[in-house]
Amino acid sequence: MKPISLTRFLIEEQRSRRQITPDLRLLIEVVARACKHISLAISKGELGGVLGNAEAYNVQGEAQKKLDVLSNEILLEANEWGGHLAALASEEMEAPHLIPHRFPKGNYLLVFDPLDGSSNIDVNISVGTIFSVLRCPEGVTEPTAEHFLQPGVEQVAAGYTVYGPSTLLVLTTGSGVHQFTLDREIGSFVLTQRNLRIPEDTSEFAINMSNQRHWEAPMQRYVQELLDGKTGPRGRDFNMRWVASMVADVHRIMTRGGVFYYPVDAKTREKGGRLRLLYEASPMAFLVEQAGGAATDGRQRLLERKPEALHQRVPVFLGSKNEVERVTALHREHDAAAS
Ligand SMILES: O=P(O)(O)OC[C@H]1O[C@](O)(COP(=O)(O)O)[C@@H](O)[C@@H]1O
Ligand SMILES: [Mg+2]
Ligand SMILES: [Mg+2]
């Protein structure tokens, strides 16, 4: 069968479903093109001089890697003159970036984590890019941070790339989740999986266990039950994985099921959690729900949370539906008993 390129797939979606406007299609193509560029830079590794620290810090006080800065610049540059956006916001920039007056403007807002899993760059483990597309509110020509503060249900598209043994783009525009693989010989993303589905049950969980002693009581109880395995209340064994690149952990879940948890703990309570709502939790929650999974902050559906700040952090529980519902129910029961 003839391979279906991302462009052809999007044109077909645009024709069959009116929600994809030509502008949205072209915007996704620009993002995909920028990701190809990032993939190329990453694959050069030490030879390309892209590893190591940038000797700079982002607004969240995190040390930036050279590739964090480079990926941000690539996405910014590609999208700035694309003509489909009113503004962009990124993990690596304190405030939104407005499209300069000399370029044509569009009606969308793009928010992204240009390089997810930065701590894995220098050790040659999979990293990725996460992005989310929102509508710019009508009549707004100079969007501010406030215009980005839309709950995840308002997203019109979301996706991530994984720069791993192969480069993948996983995308939703609200009708299922589809996977594209970068064919380096022809230079395009090619459709390799339609309608990814996350099984409702799983025996695999992803969590950073080193934070265990800092977790809240319901989380302690839940994970202990998983660790007790066959001889515990769950009556079966669970396996554990933690890549420390959200894209890689989520992609494993997209492929064979599982759950990914980053609960709030005593260390992150003041900040609200570890992962960022707008460009990590929200797009991943959209993708996971579209693939039949569930995504909560431990108490509430993630997609319904109204962001309060551009770089807001939240707890994240996502993946196989029955497991996410169970851990969420335990948190709710705990809250009810405490009040
Ligand atoms: O190092 P920890 O605490 O295990 O956190 C790992 C998590 O942090 C992140 O790396 C954050 O992403 P960035 O690299 O974009 O800051 C996630 O991808 C990952 O799930
Ligand atoms: Mg990240
Ligand atoms: Mg990042």
UniProtKB/TrEMBL annotation:
Pathway entry: Carbohydrate biosynthesis; Calvin cycle
Domain called Fructose-1-6-bisphosphatase class I N-terminal: residue spans: 5-193
Residues engaged in binding substrate: 116-119, 208
Residues holding Mg(2+) 2: 113, 116, 280
Catalytic activity: beta-D-fructose 1,6-bisphosphate + H2O = beta-D-fructose 6-phosphate + phosphate
Keyword terms of this UniProt record: Carbohydrate metabolism, Cytoplasm, Hydrolase, Magnesium, Metal-binding
Keyword match Nucleotide-binding: no
Keyword Cytoplasm part of the UniProt annotation: yes
Residue stretches making up the Fructose-1-6-bisphosphatase class 1 C-terminal domain: 198-331
Protein name: Fructose-1,6-bisphosphatase class 1
Organism of this sequence: Pseudomarimonas salicorniae
